[in-house]
Specification:
Elements: H1 2-22, H2 30-34, H3 45-56, H4 75-78, H5 94-99, H6 116-127
Amino acid sequence: MKKNLVKYLLVLFTIIIISTFQNCDDSITSSDIANLVMPDSNVSYSIHIAPVFEVMCVGCHNSQTSEGGVDLSSWANATRDPSVIFPGSDSTSILVWTIERLPPYPPMPPFERLKQNHIDGIRIWIREGAKNN
């Protein structure tokens, strides 16, 4: 009887542990960034920019797909080409032209415009040097 109870408790414990880890989904969703407010200064790549890129851009602009040769899946990849993100100059960064939907570049994301708050935050981050912070 005691042996069966130990087996039962081990199985129960295993099921609890497995279900706990299956429910630990750290992926960011569009509802997570919907309320993300960009500050007027000191924009952080990891806190403000990366979540927007992850939800809105990385589906097409990643290391496997990199539509248009742009990979926004990490800070290093996003800042690799200074014509896409020119640290210190948001007005000459192609990324800004695409998210502002300015010619001659195709609008990005193509089906849903970024919130102006997010666009402003990206512009500030680039103006502040596009730091990995």
